[in-house]
Structure formats: C-alpha cells, structure tokens
Design goal:
single chain, 29% strand, 97 residues, Double Stranded RNA Binding Domain, 3-stranded antiparallel β-sheet, 45% helix, alpha+beta, 3 helices
Length: 97
C-alpha cells in the first residue's frame, strides 16, 4: 500500500505523505504503538489518518496508506474497482434481505 499511495502522489504532483509517531502504551504486557499519517492535497487541504494500536510497524505502514488512499479517492470523486469489495457489498445486501 505505501508504494501505491506514493505512486498516486507522484502522478498527481502531490507531496509524499508523512508518517509521525503518535503514542505508545502497554497492553497485556506488550508495548503497542500508533502513528499518524498526513497527506497534503493542494486543492483539498490535509488528509489525516490515525492508525490503530499495533505491535509492529509493518501493520501500521499498511493501514495508514490504505486509509489515505480511500480518502484521496473520496475527495477526487473516484472509486476503487476491487472485485472482492464489491462482492462483499452484494453479500451484505443479500444478508439484509
């Protein structure tokens, strides 16, 4: 995901996102932490994403870019064509009926 977000930024001439340590706490004897990511979009202002608490940096580095990609698409009026996502929407609608 970080590579995809970087690609989107480069193609649209946006500055690359920044990731900053937010805080840490101890949960069940294990240290967990979270980060905040920010992407400055010239026409829309800053987009900010706060990660969930995680045990390792790799989970955080996937979560924040994914959230920022959704936010970029929303601001630009775009949708992500993800077959699995649309299958999930259909299944949820069928479940409601």
């Amino acid at each position: 995901m970080p590579d995809l977000l970087s690609h989107i930024c480069i193609v649209h001439n946006y500055p690359l996102p920044s990731y900053t340590f937010h805080d840490t706490l101890e949960h069940d004897g294990m240290k967990v932490f979270r980060y905040v990511g920010m992407l400055q979009m010239p026409n829309f202002g800053p987009l900010v994403s706060l990660s969930n608490y995680a045990c390792n940096i790799f989970d955080v580095k996937e979560e924040i870019p994914a959230d920022l990609i959704w936010k970029v698409c929303e601001k630009m009026g775009r949708t992500i064509q993800d077959f699995n996502y649309y299958r999930l929407l259909v299944a949820e609608e069928e479940f409601k009926e």
